[in-house]
Design brief:
Layout: E1 21-31, E2 34-42, E3 52-58, E4 65-71, E5 78-86, E6 100-107, E7 111-117, E8 125-126, E9 133-134, E10 141-148, E11 153-159, H1 161-165, E12 171-176
Antiparallel strand pairs: 1-2, 2-3, 3-4, 5-6, 6-7, 7-8, 7-9, 10-11, 11-12
Amino acid sequence: MSTENPEKFRPVFHFTSKKNWLNDPNGLVYYKGIYHLFFQYDPHSVHGHQKVWGHAISKDMINWEEIDIALNYDEFQIYSGSGAIDKNDVLGVKCKNNDIMILAYTANLCGQCIAYSNDGGKTFHKHPKNPILPNYGFEDRDPKIFFHENTKKWVMIFYGEHYAKEGRPAYVFFTSENLLDWEY
């Protein structure tokens, strides 16, 4: 393989990162004519030892532009999750005419967390009340969030290993009115 033009060997139709380790797609959010794709990524190696969320954008879901990392690790690696748009600004962080883009993710060994963008997905801020749901075991992970219009509540579904060990369903449902306080 030639190292002169690595773009020549990347798929044309499917998104791939420009370099290093790439894993789970974690959210496809459509906002103001732009698709935002978030994915697990290791910016430093091909091994996946330092997980963050990469970020790519597209107007047609075929041609993608990889942009800055959306969620960087701090003391916790960023595991899988999802994204959504908070049109009602329940977090109270709205800025100008932008709706709030929400990312729900698992911080390894910490719990389920959220980050938000009030600038259309250019920058993300981890919420200071994280974790919004602490982990009771290593395998509580992969929160998927959405707004349920009929009940006017946010719903989070994730795999809860400790719930399964207690004899409850392994995939658990929580609801919230404010994205911070969750009820089983």
